[in-house]
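hey team, just a heads up i'm posting the complex here instead of the shared drive bc the drive is being weird again. everything in one block, sequence lines first with there labels, then the predicted structure for the whole assembly after. its two chains so it's a bit long, scroll down
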Amino acid sequence: MTTETLIGQEVKRVEDHALITGRGQYVDDLRLPGLLHLALVRSPYGHAKINRIDVSAAANADGVVSVFTGADLAEQLGSLPAGWLLDEETAGMKAPEHPPLAFEKVRYVGDAVAAVVANSPAAASDAVALVEVDYEPLDAVTDAEKATADGAPIVHDDAPGNLAFDWSVGAGDYEAAAAEADVVVSERIINQRLIPNPMEARGIMADYNGGTDQLTIWTSTQIPHLVRLLFSLVTGHPEHKVRVVAPDVGGGFGCKLYLYAEEVICGIVAKQLERPVKWIESRTENYVATTHGRDHIADAEICGTSDGIVTGLKVHVYANLGGYLSTFAPAIPTILFGLMLGGCYKFENLSCTVKGVFTNTTPVDAYRGAGRPEATYVVERMMERYAHEIGRDVLGVRRRNFVRPFKRGHDMPIGVTYDSGNYQGALAAALDKFDYQAFRAEQRAARREGKLLGVGFSTYIEICGMAPSAVAGALGAGAGLWESSTVRVHPTGTVTVFTGTSPHGQGHETTLAQITSSRLGIPMENVEVVHGDTERHQFGTGTFGSRSLAVGGEALMMSLDKVIDKAKQIAAHEMGVDSKQVSFENGTFYVEDIQEREIPWGDVALGAYWAKNLPDGLEPGLEAVSFFDPQNFTWPFGTHVAVIEIDEMTGETKLARYVAIDDVGNVINPMIVDGMVHGGIAQGVGQALQECAVYSDDGQLMTGSMMDYAVPTAEDFPNFETGRTVTPTTVNSLGAKGAGETGTIAASPAVVNAAVDALKHLGVTHLNMPLSAEKMWRTIQDAKEARRARRSAAARRGN
Amino acid sequence: MTTGVTDPFAYHAPTTVREASQALLRYRGDAKVLAGGHSLIPMMKLRIASPQAIVDLRNVEGLKGITANDDGSITIGSMTTYYELITSDVINSNASSIAEAASQVADTQVRNWGTIGGSLAHADPAGDLPAVAVALGFEIHAASARSQRTIASDRFFRGYLETALRPNEILTGVTVPAQGAGSGDAYVKLANKASHYAIVGVAASLTIDDGGICTSARIGITGAGPHAVRSRRAERILVGKELNESVVNRAAQRGGAEIAGLFNDDVHASAEYREAMTQVYTARAVNAAAERAMN
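-- predicted structure starts here --
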């Protein structure tokens, strides 16, 4: 018997028909009778004391139902929690109060101070302008390093020096390694602040039934169950009386991974008024009220021998956390950064210290890659910096330092165990597509014609499959990171899969249906995947950290195995054999060598519910629930190659070519993985070339709209040349590592390395992102000026 | 902090220029003309602009269309969209820099809605079409309820979002003068990566005689300063000469000399960079126009 399988097939996404024909249901598409609209009054100041709020004019305006201030609701709203707290003793963790509506002072532009509820969005917006807030502006600080200086304005009185934490991790003895090294190279590396920009901004609708005390919150989130849990903890409304629904969610990139102030405000206001309430975030609000990403100032130092063996890396980081701790903020620049600094290299001495700093800016939390892009950027930039310093080829140096290929675990000095890896293999695959020697010849020829070309590499590794709960818990996680599934077989043999993951563009409805279809031998149309509703399915963790397949997919496999086991018992009873004799393939139960003994899947499903001929003691029904908590993270890797072209006259910098080889283990749907890789590369290249959130010193966001913040578009990119090597993980039976973030992690160092390579002959050793035309023009002008000065000095010495 | 909803406003959609002008008069300067709306409506949603009324020109007769006149000039109605400019044979064969500029405005949606009149009357200092209007010497037609007049493009742009239009005047259209034999025009820009507005945009229109001598030159610059300007000092160096590399570079060094000290300085580009890029792009515009003039 042959097994037809959809695993590894480019099945078209089943989600897309509804979405592209306008039948999607995003929060703003939802309507309830008697719906009210909520708008927020937000601080125009980066840092100010609130002396008084006068809501009388707003409350009396046409169409306004009610106006609430933070003081009105302080008790009901509670304080937003940080869901990941580092050790108080060793890291000095501080988690100051975070009121959903500020009432004593505001700490960033966009901090909400009052909520206006009205009969229409327009009436609510008009009334926002009528709320009079008497602010007393305070000195602000927006730069993480400056915020730690003596005399800097203090954002939270209970966080002296603006320090949320001072965390460190290390391996070996970096200082000893540096003292013995032939070469020590240091560089200040800025990883600029980014604005996530999901296609759909956030939106919330809340409805309360006073008769049952049941509160329903529809919200554009990646984590409906965690929103319910945290909402319940913050407000005291019982968890079992709260339902959270994530309907269609138009992207997240990490910024919908938290309990937000607006979720609490809408829920509590709906409860107070006993009327449904909706808040839809405008893009302008989104830029200040939804979390930002990155914003590291890193001082990095790498040491090694003069012939290319790296012996150590030291990194000190100021991580800007913004005005408050967002839900996962403390984990991002620490666990997800520091533990990644070994890269795919053998060096044994590592020292990392991270100061998490409060500033008068929008809170910073996970953004696609979350800590790993920052780490990879430091590692891959410093590897090339070191190679240039010792005058060796960047690939030769990498090869000398790569960890050898391994299939079943490799212990890294920092204390983590990589699952499987073949870094040489991914680099070789990239060089099959990209002829390195030919490029070097082309680069020399182009330079003679006044054209600047450069190539950059990123032999990255990342940490995915966000799980082992015990490890995460020991590191500060305030929630388990396992994942769950329910497989419910209906009497006709069709199947509903309930997953705890919460897709927002990743295609889980397709991928999980492919797995189910292949395992049960039934058509994909007979499988429905349900997610994003705390009332419809078991507790789940959600979607982030490229975990949905590696953790959620495995939870599905466990439930499928359970229903198949039970179905085999039913089939065996029917056929009068022992269940160990029964095989199951292509949707048919059969006994080897006995042709006539076959029972199709549908008959067994019906039998399970009809229950007229079940084995003794076997319960009717065919359904299983599973919770999967893996023993390790997964560690995807790959090699990305960027070719950059720079206009010497203007500094305009263009991505000319991009080759990406990713190893994400086994792949269920190559088209979906390619889609994620493409999107990730676009975001990573966007960071390298053009995206940057800029604050003025007094806390105004200077890039507060898409007119000023340069989200890349299709015209900014060449065709991406993607490919894969396959090194399955041993952490789950699917062998899948996770594919959601490879591009954002790999791309930015590849692009910056390429730009530095293009200007290397001018003496340029480092460039900070984004590589704007003006920055590149100025770099070229300065480098040429310096070269002229060197030459004339040499000429003078010659005289 | 705005929530993306405008302040309340009255809406008028007159069918004649006369009615439109009267509507503007009625609000004493506190009404805005809607001619596409891709600049006005975002400003209203951000409540940077909160006019009492908007006067939508969409139903006004006779403001649309591109006409080739017998004397070689082209008349363009003010409500003609960027898309219509980009796809017009008349424009592409006689004044291609108009299509070239229009095709670099924002994105497809904006180009389907935005109009030439809207762009010129809004006078965004970084708009694309103002540079071309200056370089091609547009005659800009304005009408009120009672009178009509024509304004030369190099006197039209007066300051930041400020034009020579009077509060009750409607921009009804433009005439692009005949460019004549041996002429060529081009528009090149260094685009802001976010908005796609010009950090610097330069349009050049040249005539070159059979002997290879430049007999006339007009250069329009946008993005660099408070409003689109004509760079006569650069033009003067070109006229009467053969356009070899050294002449073009000398002219380019005078590109934007008229706005020395007035270059925009913001989060997207410093004044120093804009000044340097004005020179680089002046050379590129002149070279591109010269190539077309000689073909």
